[in-house]
Design goal:
The structure is a homodimer. Chain A is α/β, with parallel strands linked by helices. The first copy, chain A, contains 14 helices and 17 strands. In chain A, strands 7, 8, 9, 10, 11, 12, 13, 14, 15, 16 and 17 form an eleven-stranded mixed beta sheet that branches. In chain A, strands 3-2-1-4-5-6 form a six-stranded parallel beta sheet, sandwiched between helices. In chain A, helix 1 (about 30-50) crosses helix 12 and helix 4 packs parallel to helix 5. Chain A is elongated, with a radius of gyration of 25 Å. Chain A starts with 20 loop residues before the first strand and ends in a 7-residue tail after the last strand. Chains A and B meet through helix 1, helix 6, strand 12 and helix 12 of A and helix 1, helix 6, strand 12 and helix 12 of B. Strand 12 of chain A pairs antiparallel with strand 12 of chain B, so a sheet runs across the interface.
Chain lengths: ~450, ~450
């Protein structure tokens, strides 16, 4: 389908045109279909605004003969072989929206090798082999743009890479998974249990039938890897990211957090631990207790937000819809227009040069901790438990008993302690007869910066 | 001063270098000095990251002989004649940080005519003659970048122009003046009067001795004009912006807003009134009542935030430090790196094509209104006042009397009404014997989108 642009004869901008820019689309799922519709609806506007005529030349889908909304418009342009899309000489830009590492990686490599810019929304791909692909793109002198791979429509990549090009990023803390934020919001505002809130999220389509990638923090970990890579020019992949999910959090943990003036959020954190650009970095995902006055604390429902601390720019936050077909397609189209602009100008996006940076082990980090310990309510329990903290050099800031009898729990907030000392404390506590379970461990974050 | 980059002989990136990029700096005030220091401190890092060596070649200041921190480093490079900076053949990029329309405009025009990209943080200039300057830059094929002219380090221009290139922007609502947001925060949180809060802001350096440009909304109006221009490709200047300040707001207005579940903020709003890109737009600055759950409502102190509503991307907000030497200098340096990258690649930023758009008169807009009316507390007052509303077709949603005797005020919230009807109501009310003054008029905003 050749999408209409303004008639070029009468058009004063015609001199700027490089003719229609052929797009090859891989995948016609949620994001792919939204992208297709958006190109169809917006091509004339885009042409008028930017002088760039976009045209979808070929679309690779698993079952090209299956009846779909787009069939009438695409017809013969729907093909089963994705390489037919990549290798079509009329395809100038490849838009990869199939997701997953393989075959996406091979397709992207083939496109780059053919000198074709690639726009992708593929989080797994960029989190797993982003450094390799960016290096291939750089050597080929071709764009590889991936704004839509993190936080949907929120323009984080461009923010970090361009607007803050001169900025030393100190820390990025983000709510980058809508499913878990929705669950935590319901737990926080309505006192639902984790299971009830998960069921509500599933009913509304915010969580999948198998929610494990979201609730275990793996989706957030992939995004943390991508963000850390951009913020610190570092080679970080998902496997480098320490990751804890939200399944152990109970309504009473959240109630206790509120009492202390905190909110509980699943955070993806990437930070530089020292003062120089050679310092180690930390990349991690875990539930955290944030002061209620922190801008991230008021991010509700399935929304995403990323808080950036820069040396000169100070604190900054971007907030918006982190997922969904339309917002993600909007980010993809923004990248496609950039790639087309670069084709016209015979240039490319700024090169990305990554270096190996030391990623500090979680065990060596320090912060304050909240621990909830289910105990048998009998004399001497507190002394035994407190003794374990003492043995491991973990100093207690506050303690409270919640509930009675078989429901009794001891809730501790520590002073700043090292992760390995706290983990050793937890392991030893679990061996005590009087301790039934260490229920939940939350790290306190953002304390130092807040009033 | 030639700032050090990594030794180029041994540097694998050396092939990408175009040699040092000479910068000509106009102005060494708050932002200029911070920019100078940042280039000095960061040049090596920037060179390593981007392959671009920045070098400050010449600096134009009013009194080059005055002793300043930078004298030792700059020496002979400090000159009194700004054209000496612009015309220096070694100056490849002109960084305009003097502020005000003249002589800045002539200097920018001279630089563009000489084919030199310009980076500016000059809000007045871009709000007054942005369309003209961008058109000159476009014809000359030269960059004119102005990220720092609105909201300091918050990367709004790049967000609107690039990330949301394909997006139909529906509305932008922003807290873009730190001084007034600081004053309103103190009034809201501590019940201070406007005068007390202004004095506090002046003590802390958030407000100037003559605060009129801030408190009357003029600073915000200039930023609204720039944002509307970018968001709607429209030719908008400060004089097109309806503007009301915060001086009439009393602590009791804010208390009343809280009671209704609102917060009071000075907003800059740019919105498209119809559904197409030919529809009229509205650009205005006024105090507004926002639902407490609106993300803008929790933006405190001197911080800035801009809430963007896009057709596909949905709601989005960026938040950060909107002023100050360092954050602004960081945004300037981001633009300088972009301009230098374009010089190296022999390309330029995406062209901006503006068109005339109808800017709707304020009098024709409709919303709900809050009005506070100081009255003489005697029988029949309410009937007289309510009668005036009725005569003008303004329907009342709620009314309450606050205070007694000479302190009595009637507080109204209307149903949706037209601005001209409300203004006619106010004019007629002020003629009534029993009305001493119409104290404060606040427009309700963001209602429709919130739960």
């Amino acid at each position: 389908v050749s999408l209409p642009g303004p008639a070029s004869a009468a058009d004063p901008n015609a001199k700027d045109r490089l003719g229609a820019v052929g797009l090859g689309l891989l995948g016609l799922g949620n994001v792919g279909a939204a992208f297709f519709e958006m190109v169809f609806a917006k091509a004339a506007t885009v042409a008028e605004r930017t002088g760039i005529d976009l045209e979808i030349v070929k679309v690779g889908v698993r079952e090209p003969r299956r009846k779909r909304r787009e069939t009438a418009l695409l017809g013969q342009k729907l093909v089963a072989d994705p390489y037919e899309v990549v290798n079509d000489p009329e395809v100038r830009i490849v838009v990869e929206l199939i997701g997953g590492v393989l075959p996406a990686k091979d397709l992207v490599l083939a496109a780059l090798a053919a000198g074709k810019p690639v726009v992708t929304a593929n989080k797994e791909l960029m989190a797993t082999c982003g450094t390799e692909l960016l290096s291939v793109a750089e050597k080929a002198g071709v764009d590889l743009l991936f704004e839509a791979s993190v936080a949907g429509a929120i323009p984080l990549i461009r923010l970090l890479k361009e607007s803050l090009a001169a900025e030393q990023i100190l820390r990025i803390s983000g709510i980058v998974n809508g499913t878990t934020n929705y669950i935590l919001t319901r737990m926080s505002e309505e006192g639902l249990s984790y299971k009830e809130a998960l069921a509500a999220a599933q009913r509304l389509g915010y969580a999948e039938a198998d929610p494990s990638a979201d609730v275990a923090g793996l989706d957030a970990a992939a995004k943390a890897a991508i963000l850390a890579g951009i913020a610190f020019d570092a080679d970080v992949s998902t496997s480098d990211v320490f990751c804890e999910g939200i399944t152990a959090i109970s309504p009473s943990d959240i109630k206790f957090a509120h009492k202390l003036g905190y909110e509980v959020k699943l955070l993806a954190v990437a930070e530089q631990l020292g003062t120089t650009e050679e310092s180690p970095i930390s990349v991690r995902v875990h539930p955290a207790m944030l002061p209620a006055s922190h801008p991230l604390a008021s991010v509700r429902e399935a929304l995403n937000a990323v808080f950036v601390e820069g040396e000169a720019a100070g604190e900054m936050m971007v907030y918006g819809r982190g997922a969904g077909g339309l917002p993600t397609a909007s980010a993809v189209l923004g990248d496609v227009i950039e790639a087309a602009h670069h084709l016209r100008e015979e240039t490319r996006a700024r090169p990305t040069r990554r270096k190996a940076r030391t990623i500090e082990k979680m065990s060596r980090l320090s912060c304050q901790y909240y621990l909830s310990i289910e105990v048998t309510d009998r004399p001497g329990v507190l002394a035994a438990v407190a003794g374990v903290f003492g043995e491991h050099g973990v100093s207690i800031r506050s303690m409270e008993q919640v509930g009675l009898g078989s429901e009794a729990r001891l809730v501790f907030v520590t002073h700043t302690a090292r992760e390995d000392d706290v983990q050793a404390t937890v392991a030893r506590l679990e061996e005590l007869d009087s301790v039934e379970r260490v229920g939940c461990l939350l790290r306190l974050i953002g304390e130092e910066d807040r009033r």
